[in-house]
TrEMBL record:
Record keywords: Cell cycle, Cell division, Mitosis, Repeat, TPR repeat, Ubl conjugation pathway
Pfam families for this protein: ANAPC8 (PF04049), TPR_8 (PF13181)
GO cellular component terms attached to this protein's record: anaphase-promoting complex
Region (Disordered): 1-20
Gene: CDC23
Protein name as it appears in the record: CDC23 protein
Residue stretches of each TPR repeat: 323-356, 357-390, 391-424
Cell membrane in keyword set: no
Native source species: Symbiodinium pilosum (Dinoflagellate)
Bias type Basic and acidic residues, positions: 1-14
One of the protein's GO biological processes: anaphase-promoting complex-dependent catabolic process
Length: 505
């Protein structure tokens, strides 16, 4: 006999009673704050949705919740979604924001969304020169909206920063610098704004020994960091080092200051002091990769293969998918003479960051070693497009054209490098060689003399000065230069005899 039986509900299947809507709001709000503080962006996103869906009359903390949810979207690189999380932002017909933070978040999210699309579009363009011309499509609309807020003085320090970088992206550099200076006056601790001011000021080339013309810096300690970084950007490395040494007295444990001092020594070609500074920095902060690509350049120049190999292994353990780690590994393979492998790692660095100028320059060096001058020129030109104040890219272009015996073009690029490093003897020697090949002996002599006055660590200038004076018939001056050569080499007693012999020739 069949008996109809009521199905039993399994234990634990009954819906658990939910707390009141007010309790839900309070719990969700606290959870979102804690998760956001812990940088758990995915969980913040997950809870931010239910919080924003509560009835409006229960959303007393909606603004804070929206901000946390937007931050979570930004952390997950979902920039368009982050901009959409706050309705009624800087869009035509939707009114003005009453909260400066909301205006900043939405504007910055739209800017980042445009940058992300620009990077994606640039990655699909094979020609490096063409890829550098791909634009952020959000800039014009953002400029129109933010300019209205700017005219009405509704932008705070961070809002001014976004407006400044939008103007910079539109190549309105003077306006961008003016707005960014307003930004650092309103909020001096935004280091990103200071860096953009440095970049724009260097491009405008209106900086004298006292600083930017017409620039009024805030009376704030961050101005000292700005001045030091600006001097470093302009290759005034001795004054930059002195400024950083003074700053170190107030911030003795700062790894940033330590790395900047080490880089100043590197730029001054004091490789021993730079290596010691980087090694001390690594002892204090062993998991820091920033600026270690410069340290690997020192080990490469000093041909310390074992130390460079150890540094490469450590970089791989810390984070091998960073541009700095790829540069270190590429330098190691280059030192071993495996130039194809070095190029692979420099390309990997550029896949991670297409605007990482050192990778383009080092890849150009590798193509030069491989006698692939066309690829070297492309790499150096891309580096120049990204950073017109990096003398190494201009110098590399000069070397490439000199290798092709196109001395007039080489001279143009060497001059650009010299204008950025006027106290570097290598730039003057390179220009002198071009003048010599072009049979412009007088200009060659002047350049070699300038190189000699600049120090000439490679000792290239003296023998060429002696030869040019001898060929010109000025034996006495040639003898003087030959004597200096002998004195430098430690043969002082032979110098006087050699000088007299040259005079009798």
């Amino acid at each position: 006999m069949d008996v109809a039986m009521e199905p039993k509900e399994p234990e634990g299947s009954k819906p658990r009673p939910l707390p009141s809507a007010a309790q839900l709001r309070a719990e969700l709000h606290e959870a979102v704050q804690r998760l956001s503080f812990a940088e758990l962006h995915s969980s913040t996103q997950q809870l931010g949705g239910p919080l924003s869906s509560l009835p409006r009359f229960l959303q007393d903390g909606l603004a804070a919740a929206s901000a946390q949810r937007m931050r979570a979207h930004l952390g997950m690189r979902e920039y368009s979604r982050a901009a959409h999380a706050l309705q009624g932002g800087p869009s035509p017909g939707k009114g003005l924001y009453s909260e400066p933070w909301a205006l900043f978040f939405k504007s910055y999210a739209l800017y980042l969304a445009g940058e992300k699309r620009r990077e994606e579009d640039a990655a699909e363009v094979s020609d490096p020169a063409e890829s550098s011309r791909v634009c952020n499509t959000e800039l014009k609309a953002l400029e129109e909206d933010l300019s209205a807020f700017y005219q009405e003085r509704k932008l705070d320090g961070l809002g001014l920063y976004v407006y400044g970088i939008v103007l910079k992206g539109l190549e309105l550099k003077e306006d961008a610098r003016r707005v960014l200076l307003e930004s650092v006056h309103a909020f001096p601790c935004n280091w990103s704004a200071w860096l953009d001011i440095i970049s724009i000021s260097a491009d405008l080339d209106d900086i004298d020994n006292e600083g930017c013309e017409g620039v009024r810096l805030p009376a704030h300690w961050m101005s000292s960091f700005f001045e030091a970084a600006l001097h470093m950007e302009l290759q005034r490395n001795e004054s930059a080092r002195d400024l950083y040494v003074m700053l170190r007295a107030s911030f003795p444990e700062s790894p940033y200051i330590a790395s900047q001092i080490a880089t100043c020594f590197y730029n001054l070609r004091n490789f021993d002091a730079s290596q010691a500074a980087f090694e001390e920095l690594r002892r204090r902060d062993p998991y820091r990769l920033s600026s270690l690509d410069t340290f690997s350049n020192i080990l490469f120049v000093k041909e310390q293969a074992a130390a460079l190999s150890h540094l490469a292994r450590q970089a791989v353990k810390i984070d091998k998918y960073t541009p700095e780690a790829c540069i270190i590994i590429g330098n190691y393979y280059s030192l071993k003479g495996e130039h194809e492998k070095a190029v692979v790692y420099f390309r990997r660095a550029l896949a991670l960051n297409r605007h990482f100028t050192p990778a383009w320059i080092l890849m150009g060096h590798e193509f030069m070693e491989m006698k692939n001058t066309a690829a070297a020129i492309d790499a150096y030109r891309t580096a120049v497009t990204i950073n017109r104040r990096d003398y190494r890219a201009w110098y590399g272009l000069g070397q490439t054209y000199e290798l092709l015996s196109l001395h007039f073009y080489a001279l143009f690029y060497y001059r650009r490098a010299m204008s950025l490093r006027p106290d570097d003897a290598r730039m003057w020697c390179a220009m002198a060689q071009c003048y010599d090949h072009m049979d412009r002996k007088a200009e060659a002599l002047k350049c070699y003399e300038k190189a000699h006055r600049c120090g000439d660590r490679e000792r290239m200038a003296l023998p060429r000065l002696a030869r040019l004076h001898r060929d010109h018939g000025d034996r006495r001056q040639a003898a003087a230069y030959y004597s200096q050569m002998l004195e430098q080499s430690g043969h002082a007693r032979v110098a006087n005899v050699a000088a007299g012999w040259v005079c009798l020739m």
